[in-house]
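Re: beginner question about structure tokens

> Can someone show what the tokenized structure looks like for a real chain? I only ever see the sequence side.

Sure, here's an example I had lying around. Input first:
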Amino acid sequence: MTTERVRNQHGEAGSELTGEQVWQAIARASFAVLSHVTPAGEPRSSGVVYKTRGHKLVVAVAPDSWKARHIAAGDRVAVTVLVRRGGILSLLAPIPPAAISLHGSAVVHPAGSPEARSTLDQLDSLVPRERRTSACVIEITPTGAFRTYGLGVSLRKMLDPAAAQARVPVPADLGRHLRRRGG
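And the corresponding structure tokens:
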């Protein structure tokens, strides 16, 4: 995979992050803020616990939740993942987390569907056994580019917002997968 140089908002060469490196940071985390728009056009966001499967994020939710109902009505979502920085130093100093934001398309697999059942088997640590038959699964595929802040830069560079942010294309194999599906 080739590394694409990303330019910051001032046109300067920024981070040498690849989409795979960003995806690895997403895969190591487990909590994100999931945002969507209701059928009435109202913005909504809520915290979710997720896992990655391939180049997708998967989330188990109650079938009667706002997330399940609203995302099924409109498949565009935004996700923000916070990545802890600073190790033990973050316990002593106010070091902000790095952030990864993405847009994506989402599919809601109804409770009891073959897709939901197979995914819930893999989410055993996230979903209590008694909820596995009633939960539905939201599967999120990132599109376009990741927006990052503080990822792949030193803690000192995080003090300079222009140097700390980057726009990183999603991994190439993900883009090919979406083109085959027509996405």
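Each token stands for a local structural state, so reading them left to right follows the chain. The chain has one domain: 19-177.
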